[in-house]
Amino acid sequence: MTSHPAKRPVTALPWPADPTQAPVRGQLAMLVLAGGGRIFTDALAEALANPDLAGNVPLLVLCELSIRGPLRPRDLLEPTSLNSAALSKHLDHMEGLGLITRTYGTVAGDRRGSIVELTERGHEAARTIGWAVEERIEDIRAMRDGMSRLLGD
Fold it and tell me: Which of 73, 83, 99, 107 has the CA that lies 20 to 30 A from 57?
């Protein structure tokens, strides 16, 4: 397994007297989520040995394809929140890195349609993502607890 940087603790936030009131609650929620994002971006960039892969789109594509299997590009539009041109650029990059392959002409009734699937290298990257996040499960719990406190749960 890849070595990981020292775990960065979830930053304690300065809780106001009543953090459940808007807009303060929304601002604090943003800080909790952003802090978690930094923790996971750092951990995933290190685990994957490529900071470009620690962005939302590559992570989502790798996880979607790992869990759901080969998909048409249009099936990746919603989870990535991209349009087809932007997604195509990301898929080109991921294909260049040897993480995915696209097969054309294999969709019944659509000669131009393509299927995107993970290569063995892509499967390994998806497994690495899963393990890197598992190693940070305590950080996820801390974020959950912070959000629960913030939301008054």
Answer: 107
Q: Helix 137-151 and helix 24-48: axis angle, to 10°? A: 170
Integer CA distances (angstroms), 42 to 11, 66, 104, 144, in order:
15, 22, 35, 19
Place 2 in a pLDDT band, splitting at 50, 70 and 90.
very low
Q: What is the CATH number of the domain that holds 131?
A: 1.10.10.10
| Pairwise CA distance, residues 64 & 135, whole Å | 20
The count of structural domains within the chain is: 1
Query: H or E element: which one contains 117?
Result: strand 114-118
Query: For residues 34 and 70, is the Cβ–Cβ distance under 8 A?
Result: no
Q: pTM of the entire structure?
A: 0.78
Helix (H, G, I), strand (E, B) or coil at 41: helix
Model pLDDT, residue 29: 83
- What sign for the dihedral angle of Cα 11, 17, 18, 24? negative
